[in-house]
Design brief:
With 162 residues, the chain is mostly helical. It is 46% helix and 0% strand. The chain contains 3 helices and no strands. The model has no long low-confidence stretch (mean pLDDT 81).
Length: 162
């Protein structure tokens, strides 16, 4: 889980997509709060460098968070065998909600697809034979095509067992 989180190649499962969103939200919220806090402390102490440092932290975290979110979204779209460019639908209001729910609840393609191997290691469904002939033996019935076999240690007819 979380192999190459900033890469746009490969596929991820639903749970990794969900955890990515949660982690991104928590990490981004804490980092932005620290950036805003540093910014306000710099303003309160009449220090221009404190204000600039706070804004710089906020911008860096915002860029990293956007990149991480886009990469994870594209990999999730790859898992359902869709182009990563569909992530741009997230820029359209209301469509982004539908897209997010689709990526969260849609099952991925079974087996490998054009974007990589199945992250769940499932194999595609293979056609089973249409009919199977089964012979059930009840009790000690012998099939008609087999001759009865006598054990070699059993006494032959007319001989007594010792």
């Amino acid at each position: 889980m979380f192999k190459a989180p900033f890469s746009f190649n490969g596929r991820i499962r639903r749970i990794e997509y969900f955890l990515s969103a949660v982690i991104s939200s928590i990490f981004g919220g804490i980092a932005m709060a620290l950036g805003v806090g540093t910014m306000f402390l710099g303003v309160a102490s009449n220090s221009a460098s404190g204000f600039g440092f706070g804004v710089l932290i906020g911008i860096i975290v915002l860029i990293a968070d956007i990149w991480f979110g886009l990469a994870q979204g594209v990999k999730r779209l790859h898992d359902v065998d869709k182009s990563g460019w569909l992530i741009l639908l997230g820029l359209i209001p209301l469509v982004n909600i539908v897209l997010g729910l689709y990526m969260l609840f849609a099952d991925g393609t079974v087996g490998p697809n054009s974007y990589g191997p199945d992250p769940k290691n499932r194999m595609p469904y293979q056609q089973q034979p249409s009919s199977i002939n089964v012979t059930v033996n009840v009790g000690n019935e012998k099939p008609a095509d087999q001759a009865p076999q006598t054990p070699s240690s059993a006494p032959a007819e007319g001989e007594e067992a010792k």
